Amino acid sequence: MRKLFKFRLPWGLDWPLFIIPIFLAFWGIVFIFSVAHTTNPGLTLSQIIFSILGIIVMVSLALFDYRNLRGISLVLYLILVLLLIAVLFIGNRAFGASRWINLKIFQLQPSEIGKLILVLFLARFFADNTQINWKKILQIILIVGLPVALILLQPDFGTAMVFIASTLALLFFSKTKKFVLAIIVVAMLVAAPIGWKYFLKPYQKQRVYTFINPASDPYGSGYNVTQAKITVGSGGLWGAGIGQGTQIQLNFLPVAHSDFIFATIAESVGLVGSTILILIFILLGTRAINVAKVSKDYFGYYFAIGWGVTLLFQVFVNIGMNIGLMPVTGIPLPFMSSGGTSMLTNMAAIGILQSIYLRHRKITL
């Protein structure tokens, strides 16, 4: 029986993949403290605790044989569906959405852990089905469509888009014929008006209108976007310094610790620092995808591809909405936005990637 854990020090780690998440988490704590140390000091402490727990989870999963996750991915998927149903009935509401289950110790956000679980389950599906025909496409639609529909009911359009982006990436890198993939994309574009009419709430539609023309309602629906752009611009080339920016310290920017933390960072460290941060995220995403190249099995290959794209997509959307290139969707900046579930999920994914990387080298741990 294969051992689940091996306990010697894993010197064969992908060190950039190990160090970068810890580096990002540390600076996330610094910037959250700069925003919330006077108004909500508990927020920083919470982020520190979940960052430490996240690192523990990351190391534990690196030692864990990732191939055992293949067998339990269906169970995890079913648990996810149950949690997404539960959050609609017992979830706490904030910003017009029901996304969190109060576990007393912390607020669990099922859609966040769903990003990881869906990639695991799809990695198993694609590994088991090397040839994707129309029957398999229908199965994929059902697998992804159920959690996406439940997430849209919360409503959480941003996370639903993350699920779809992950699925399209896996279809692209699988042996799915490209003309089949093209038909799927065209079908999604044709169905978009239906989704616009029946699934998006009025405030979500207003976000799209605001994205197109923020000046139409600068003190209402366009306020957050306008203030985020002002905050980013006020950082200049080198930034005002951590905790020194007037936009942040005078509380002009809402939720500066979560959705708009990139604007907080940009005001503090300027264009130079923000550019370095973006390059670090790109490096992290490419290291994740590099794990796919060295994976010894299809399950590891598809997981690494799926999570690498998921990570980069979230970074792109979050930064895009901070600088006015994307509508506001509430997608966090991985490892840096405040949020316990997001931190644990992202660290867990890195741990699984490390497990794949370690075992491709057949190192005795």
Could you name the key traits of this structure?
about 70% helix, 3-stranded antiparallel sheet, about 375 residues, mainly alpha
Q: What is the element layout, followed by pairings?
A:
Elements: H1 15-36, H2 41-63, H3 67-90, E1 92-94, E2 97-102, E3 107-108, H4 110-128, H5 134-152, H6 157-173, H7 178-198, H8 202-212, H9 223-234, H10 246-249, H11 261-294, H12 298-322, H13 340-360
Antiparallel strand pairs: 1-2, 2-3
Helix pairs in contact: 1-2, 1-11, 1-13, 2-13, 3-4, 3-5, 4-5, 4-6, 4-12, 4-13, 5-6, 6-12, 9-11, 11-12, 11-13, 12-13
Strand order of the largest sheet: 1-2-3
Which bin fits the share of residues in helices?
A: 55-70%
- Rounded to the nearest angstrom, the distance between the terminal CA atoms is 17 Å
What would you call the structural class? mainly alpha
- Assembly state of the chains shown: single chain
The proportion of residues in beta strands is under 5%
The number of helical runs is: 13
